[in-house]
Amino acid sequence: MNSIRYATIIRSVHALLLSLLVAGFLAACSPSNDPDEIWSEFSSQEKPWTRWWWMGNTVNKENITIQLEAFAAAGLGGVEITPIYGVKGYEKQFIDFLSPEWMEMLEHTLQESDRLGLGVDMVMGTGWPFGGPQVEPQFAASRLWVKKYRIDADATFHETIQMDDPKQRGLAELQHVFYFDNNERKDITPLVKEGVLTFTPSENTELYAVFCAKTRQRVKRAAPGGDGYTLDHFSEAAFNDYAIPYETALPKTTGSLRALFNDSYEVYNADYSPVLLETFLENRQYDLLDHLPALLEKPEGEAYERILSDYRETLSDLLINDFARSWDQWSNALGIKTKYQAHGSPGNLIDLYAAADIPECEMFGSPVYDIPGYRRDTSNIRKGDSNKMMLKFSSSAAHLQGNELVSSESFTWLREHFKTALHHCKPVTDDFFLSGVNHMFLHGSTYTPSEGLWPGFKFYASVNFNPTNTIWHDAPYLFAYIARCQSILQKASSDNEVLLYWPVYDAYAQAGKERLLLQLGIHSIEEWMLETSFYEIAETLDQKGFGFDFISDKFILGASAKNGMLKLAENASYQAIIVPDMQYIPLETMQKLVELKEKGATVLFAGQPSSVPGYYEYATQNSRLHQLIQSHPEWFREDLDVEKELNNKGIFGEKATAAGLKFIRKKLDGAPVYFVANHTPSVIDEYVTFNAPSRSVLLLDPMTGKKGIAKTHADKNTTDVKLYLEPGASMFILMSKAKLSTDEWKYPRKFNGAIPVTGDWHITFPGEPAGELPALEMAQLSSWTGAGEQYAGYSGTAVYTTTFRLEATTADGYRLDLGDVRESARVFVNGTFAGALIAHPFSLDISDLVVEGENTLKIEVTNLPANRLREMEINGVEWKKFYEINMVNIHYKEFDATVWEPTPSGLIGEVNLVPVYYQ
């Protein structure tokens, strides 16, 4: 099929899908008679949302409705609108951003989303970062530029003071002209008349001309009507000017717009603002111009580090106060929340994330997992920038304030285009939840008109969760898994017991000190985080099973101590704070830590700070700092055993990590609830100790919705919970002090010899685009791509049917193990739906469906879209017709599917029936 016909299909079955897949699908997979009605229904916010790219704003009401209905039917809870560059051939359908026609499309989206129970966020701009046609040069991203002139004694200098770069003419603003006389700065800016300086020095002189130059960066991947300069993110005046078009447009909407979004900080080379020198003087208490030569020449030594730290701290101050908080206050005044990706910013990440209503993190690339069968072909991946500690900056910012909503940009560049399977997504999903995320945004879905050529519109860095993608067939099961997890994680509150201080001033002074700008991003953590005591302690806490958050100086200064607890907000209390080894700590931070410790809080120092940061009166402040340290020398220990010292204070790590489990602990209605995942290569089949007393423990499987009362051994402070988790599996563990009344969890005692399903397999290909592909017969299962060239290009769902006989046994039940599945499957036994398998382990319980004697087995297997795309390109069909970056591969090189080998598809290898004996 050359056209996308899903529009008609979605329309015709929409009522059925909406009732079954939304109201019934999630509930049907949920536990029945649950005492707390867990997973009985889900709010839109508890479901996953998706970033929705509007390419060229080539949207219309009919297709907006079609796609929103498809999203709702599949189990998504909302969309985040991001307008980007357009598609060639559709120019007449482009709509300028924020034009009356565009606002009409937004209003239709809001109204339809309200009707369907979906939420809507949108980017405050097009592409990224913030910027657009309304950004005048004076409010555009800026950089510091200093030009030096050498003038001989008694020689008259008469010259236009300007930058050498002709592209800066008319953009760069001359701010100061000065020289030094016996180390005293002499300002001669008033001598500049109409850009020309006339000056005669009495001695040989070096003249400094300071310019506020412009980076000239324009909005990246801008949509029609959105092109323009990138915004100066260090200026409140710049933001206020930028917001004017939105102040006119957004109040006119009548639908529900939940939040405005700010993508990761990709503002390049912006290290200055017209207001920086004034702010520097006010915040750092000395004039930066007096020390500008040192900042430019980067001499070795302490003074340069201190001035550099002050410069970077001032950038952080401006970014937090003049941009992030201004944006948040402005948005909230309109009744709209803010959602902020702070990573990559030249500022204190904790405070930046905390400035927004919803902090958002992201992973980038392909993480590594030891799950057997988890495929990570080197040709389809790029390095995974997915460090858990990076993710925890965003969740920490929320937890410190007692705010629980933490979102994530999910699956960015997880695999090569058209080669991401649902099983690739599942453990990544787990890792987001384990780091504190509780609201996932897919990256993402591209708006595609129904009449377009397959594969439709495609954004270059996404999985593309769309009906045009074959994985959409079984994506509702992934979405249901996410919804079940998020429904608990959003209702629960953080239960981390330890705080870890982040010494940002060491990064300000020492990381990348060959340049002014330090951007704290996910791609550069080796520069500013990995080789630090902070990171080492964070890893130790994680490995030893402690729940912890990071804390900044700002939040330490706002903390109080009572009854041995550290309190930061109404719903944010901790049992201890650890201060890693570092060089620089502000005097007021150390004073507050000493105060908290003297009031009974547990404050552990893993080293002795050397100095206060910054340049102003640092010798005097250092004297006071050293007095504080010397008054309690026993507190500061370079050999601190973190686990031992926490144990001595009655704070114990969870034993789940020793068993090989990843976990996060939260509190649900005051009771501990754990989310655990087994990402090891082995089955975890043992009693695991959890640091919570209980009378009953409820196990909840978020993949299937099954639940049951666990086998336990409890004492006063802990509960040993019997777990059986195969590699790749996850579980919620709810502790209850009450006696729960529901079925007991079934634990397999042994699996007694697999029984191969040996009958011949009949395979049909009912899905498009193959039309009438001939059926296949296989005695031994293998990839259908090996059956001939006509099958090598098939992407879609194939139906496998066979029969098998089951003889009488003493088994308590049976599991069906599908072995190697490429890539997802729905299983029917004797005509009854048994379940869907989208991730490891690819097995399910069919005990209630099999009978003695003859049984029929039908398995619908869906592969990836890669083979169809490969065949399409081999046949010379051109689909990559996008403006701007067009389409690149995972390494940002030219995308070429003709070089691919056919991707293995279907059931590959033996399918087994496994007798199960329960304990």
Give structural notes:
The chain has 919 residues and is of the alpha+beta class. The protein contains 20 helices and 46 strands. It has an eight-stranded parallel beta barrel, surrounded by five helices. β2, α3 and β3 (119-123) form a beta-alpha-beta unit. α2 runs parallel beside α3 and α4 runs parallel beside α7. The two termini are 52 Å apart. Residues 1-35 have low confidence and may be disordered.
Task: Give the N-terminus to C-terminus distance in angstroms.
Answer: 52 Å
Ranges where pLDDT stays below 50 over 5 or more residues in a row are 1-35
Structural class: alpha+beta
Oligomeric description of these chains = single chain
Overall pLDDT confidence:
93
- Main sheet attributes: strand count, strand direction, barrel closure: 8 strands, parallel, barrel
| Number of contiguous helices | 20
State Rg.
30 Å
Assign an overall shape.
Answer: globular
Number of strands: 46
Proportion of β residues? 25-35%
Helix content: 25-40%
Strand order of the largest sheet: 1-2-3-13-14-15-16-17
